Amino acid sequence: MQQRLAPRLLPIRLNTAALTTLAAALLIGAPVLVALMTGLFGGGGDAWAHIVSTQLLGYTLTTLGVLFLTTVFILLFAVPSAWFVSLFDFPGRGFFEWALILPLAAPGYVLAYAWADIMDVAGPVQSFIRDMTGLSARDYWFPGLYSVPGLSFVMACALFPYAYLTSRAAFSNLSLCTMEAARSLGASPRRIFFNVVIPSARPAIFAGLALALMETAADYGAASYLGVQTLSVGIFRAWHSFSEPAVAARLAFLLILIAFGLQLIERQARGRGGTQQTATRWRTPKRRQLSRRAGWLVAAGCTALLLLAFVFPVTRLIWVSLETGIGQKSIWRPFLNSLTLALAGSALAFVFAVTVVIGARQNRFSQIVGRLAAGAGYAAPGIVLALGALFILSWTGFSVAGPAALVFLVWIYASRFTAAGAEPLSAAFSRAPASLGNAARSLGANRFQRLVRVDLPVAMSGAAAASIILFVEMLKELPATLMLRPFNWDTLAVQAHAYASDERLAAATLPSLLITLAGLGPVILLSLQLTKAGESRAAG
Amino acid sequence: MSKHLPLKAVGVSRVYDGTPVVNEASLTLEPGKITALLGQSGAGKSTLLRLFAGLEPVDAGEILLGDRVLSSTSTHVPAESRSIGLIFQDFALFPHLNALDNVGFGLKRMAKEARRNRSAEWLERLGLSHRAKAYPHQLSGGEQQRVSIARALAAEPVAILMDEPFSGLDVTLKSEVREIALSAVSEAGIPALLVSHDASEAMRDADRIAVMKKGVILQEDTPEMLYLKPTSLPVARALGSLQSIARADMPAEWVASLPKAETYCLRPEAIRMSNDEGMPMQVVSAQRTSTIIELELKLNGHATLRGVGIGAHRPSPGDTVKVSLSPEFVFCLPPEAP
Questions:
Q1: In sequence order, what are the residues at sequence separation of 6 or more whose Cβ sits closer than 8 angstroms to the Cβ of residue A325?
Q2: Which of B68, B88, B151 sits opposite A435 (nearest CB)?
Q3: Of B57, B96, B155, the CB nearest to A443
């Protein structure tokens, strides 16, 4: 039996595992760190002073306005639908339970193209109104989509499923005992809903909402298409149109603050939700049958939501695409580019995610460092990360237009989405017993053997989910790709954006539909998985 | 690796943030014997187990296998080189391996076929040969724990350490799994440690019991001796229910048969209902549990006394019954330090 000196326990033990995680964390966090530092210390010169006096307030207020209105829309869309789907029986409930997640498949900018076309003066809605009333376009007022409320509506349509999912889980986990206790104390159903149900589900609702708002703040494609001057649009313009990267970095700093703030809310809300779920003995309430009339009313509401958020816009895109002829040869190149980038990015993000998740199990230091870096990358909008990468590119002397930019783009993808991949991997570990590592040690497995024989295989059970999520997220990514891709090197998202921005919606439909189609498979899979998990929990 | 050697902790300590979690604990685990480590949550039982296993270094003292030092302040043989088997409350089965491969995980330097045969033998020994291909999530709790015991024993460990191994199982499974598991452990002839907070489990399963509190081993002996001859109040309490009665409140004829003390500690079975002779006392309450009747008796104006009775007739409150004292269940123990 070999003997060796006991390593004294220091507060931080920089062993191989910790150093590997640290290296991965630095790679993941570098772009956001660079963007932050440049924003803080880079100085903005006269251009910054000009922006401060003319546009900064506008960008900030517009962004906050969009976030506020999106919150209102999401709460209206997600909470009632989740409430009825979780706790009541009505016609089509089983279908809506999973179908209401479908809008996640289409990125916000795709919905923006479709809705802008639907609501256009020459679009189907206004044409129908004119045909029915005989009025001309000048004779009536019609809500414009090219506005803060319009963008908020589109983003809420695309992202409400985040809040729907977390609310649904919270409502399904409600304690029947709590509701019965409230009833025995004389509370009316209305009071139970507002004073018992909503407060106990609030952390979960906030968590989903914060995720959706992070995505909204990060959006560039929809905002720029609808002409809403958010911070993301401002950053892109400062960099692209005014060639003022320092100003862009300053604006990015503001956007990061908003994104990190939202992430903090999400983390805290999720933490509180977790505590609540373990604190009490739960008995899941059985679903109550709604009256015939109420049932049909709720079904109509859910149908309307699904139509607005998914069916109408996607059908419109298909319609336009078919109307103008689907054969577009130029789609293959961007398709292959998208595929290559998403595959390379997924592979790198996957390696990062495995390193972070396995590192987190080794020691506390790795856990904190890995989580911080992945969290920062995920919260930071793609546009900010791309800006960070551009700074690094220019410092290192690589050409922004050369192939190095593609390598950087893969890196940015990985930096942005490592957290999304780490989640299913870490879920695979959380399903495994906590003492696995010690069990393997007691059976003689050294650190390397434990990595190969236990940690990696356990993590791999979540690998399929992680890979699909990473791949689809990267396929949809727009702003970072737009900023970093070499000239003439288009992806599907870039091509859709370019065509749509040139008012060539017909040409933008095919890439948009391909992106949506790619997203649809994983979303249906996820949705069925979640629904099944819910059913087995209810049965148990 | 030599077998059938005692595993010893000699004056070991472990300190977290300046607080000793295990404080100069000494304990010898004899080959072929199951030693239970009994104490409440936070007593330091699991930490002492981790020190034995090598999952943590010691801050003072030594862990020895026979005469070989496994842990000291200058030496630390890592857990993976100790060949000490561990059995966990959460079973710790590898979720990506089936039952057979889980058992084979620790079998090294063996041909694939031999490893499979050995694993299959162990599964059969624990009554699980029909579940060899099942993955952990397809096994019941009891089956999972039996696989984890087979896995630990198949690796031919020099000792086996069990951390609350049966507390994750429901009552009906518990006795069945316990019987199979502990007989396999005993047959292996190696030292075994069973960490538990359940006194009745420790008394039934272990050959020896060590009672631990606040990181200190208070007393270690056979279950019988610990129950009947505790040296301190915490040990007496750890092993079973106890009531304190002041000497002044005790009937004079009972005091005569007891050693002199200010306060007496009585197990419930010290006071027994008898049919023919004894001291008459009024019943305050009487509850039948499965085998005995638990009595609360009026001792004097302000105190009551707990006792037990066996029989078909359960007295009603207000009845007078005759009770006798069994002095072997009465202890004179120094009061507990605050």
A1: none
A2: B88
A3: B155
CB A20 within 8 A of CB A359: yes
8 Å CB contact of A457 and B96: yes
Q: Which of B270, B258, B267 is nearest to B230 (CA)?
A: B267
Tell me the chain B residues in contact with residue A1 when contact means C-beta distances shorter than 8 Å. Answer: 1, 68, 77, 81-82
In tens, the pLDDT along B27-58 reads 999 999 999 999 998 899 999 999 999 989 99
Chain A residue with minimum CA distance to B81:
A444
The domains of chain A are located at 14-43+324-501, 49-232+264-323
Q: Quick check: B62 and B76 in contact, CB under 8 A?
A: no
Q: Do A431 and B95 touch (CB under 8 A)?
A: yes
The three-state secondary structure class of B194 is strand
pLDDT string in tens for chain A (540-residue length): 344 434 444 445 567 778 888 899 999 999 988 888 888 787 667 777 888 888 889 999 999 999 999 999 999 999 999 989 988 899 999 899 889 989 988 999 999 999 999 998 888 889 888 888 888 878 888 888 999 999 999 999 999 998 998 888 888 776 666 676 676 777 777 887 787 788 878 888 888 888 889 889 989 999 999 999 999 999 988 888 877 888 888 888 888 888 888 888 877 776 655 434 333 334 455 678 888 999 999 999 999 999 999 999 999 999 988 887 665 557 888 889 998 999 999 999 989 988 888 888 777 888 888 888 888 888 888 888 998 988 888 888 877 777 788 899 999 999 999 888 887 788 777 767 778 888 999 999 988 888 888 888 887 777 777 787 788 888 889 989 988 888 778 899 999 999 888 888 888 888 999 999 888 877 887 777 666 655 544 443
Class of domain A14-43+324-501: mainly alpha
Q: What is the pTM of this model?
A: 0.71
Residue intervals in chain B for CATH 2.40.50.140: 243-331
Nearest to A2 among B81, B90, B157 (CB): B81
The CATH number of the structural domain formed by A49-232+264-323 is 1.10.3720.10
Instruction: Judge: B90–A433 Cβ closer than 8 Å, yes or no.
Output: yes
What tokens does A419 get?
Answer: 């957290």
Q: A450 to chain B, minimum CA–CA distance in Å?
A: 10
Q: Per the CB < 8 Å rule, is B80 touching A445?
A: yes
Contact of A64 with A264, CB cutoff 8 Å: no
Domain span(s) for CATH 3.40.50.300 in chain B: 7-230
Residue A501 identity (one-letter amino acid):
S
- The secondary element (H helix, E strand) that includes residue B27 is strand B19-29
CATH fold of B7-230: Rossmann fold (3.40.50)
Looking at domain B243-331, its CATH class is mainly beta
Choosing among B52, B62, B88, which should be mutated to test the A contact, i.e. which has the most A CBs within 10 A? B88
Question: Which residue of B80, B145, B156, B158 to mutate against A (max A Cβ within 10 Å)?
Answer: B80
List chain B residues with CB under 8 Å of A540. Answer: none
Instruction: Give the distance from residue B211's alpha carbon to the nearest chain A alpha carbon, in angstroms.
Output: 25
Distance in angstroms (rounded) separating the CA atoms of residues A463 and A424: 7
CA distances from A142 to A128, A153, A309 (A): 13, 15, 20
